[in-house]
Amino acid sequence: MRCVIARYPFDLSKSGVLASMKGVKPELITGESVTIGRRRYPVKQVGEVITRQDRRDFTSGEVTRAMARLGFACHDHPEAAPVHVLTPLQTASALLGSPVPLDV
User: Fold this and answer.
1) pLDDT tens per residue, range 51-72
2) Which of 5, 23, 32, 91 lies 20 to 30 Å from 59 when distance is taken between CA atoms?
3) What is the three-state SS of 48-88?
4) Which residue(s) pair with 75 in the sheet?
5) Rg (Cα) of the chain, in Å, rounded?
């Protein structure tokens, strides 16, 4: 598939993207991401690997559109992991060893 990223034309294929990303460790996802194989990568990391351009030269939207057209699953925001924060009573009881249930 022919696409333009940062004003440069690229002929991309799904198998080519899979081969390029094979063995690349995903960075921390803070924005848009794309699932390639079994891993989720930041869109900018994928764009940098497949185009060999600096991340500042293209937008995440350009890469997201290209990846979506190739059939990869694209995600807008990172999935937030649920965070369990102890209340002050639970923290004090944990420090003192008191048997206060944590689900109060």
Assistant:
1) 999 999 999 999 999 999 999 9
2) 23
3) HHHHCCCHHHCCHHHHHHHHHHHCCEEECCCCCCCCCCCCH
4) 33
5) 21
The pair of three-digit structure tokens given for residue 88, joined into one six-digit string:
């002050």
Task: Please state, in angstroms and rounded to a whole number, the distance separating the CA atoms of residues 3 and 72.
Answer: 15
Above 60 in pLDDT, residue 38?
Answer: yes
Q: Residue 16, exposed/middle/buried by CB under 10 A (0-12, 13-18, 19+)?
A: middle
* Cβ contact 18:50 at 8 Å: no
Question: Model-level pTM?
Answer: 0.72
What is the CA angle 36-61-38, rounded to 5?
Answer: 10
97 in helix, strand or coil?
coil
Terminal C-alpha separation, the chain: 56
Q: Report helix, strand or coil for 34.
A: strand
- What does the domain layout of the chain look like in residue ranges? 2-75
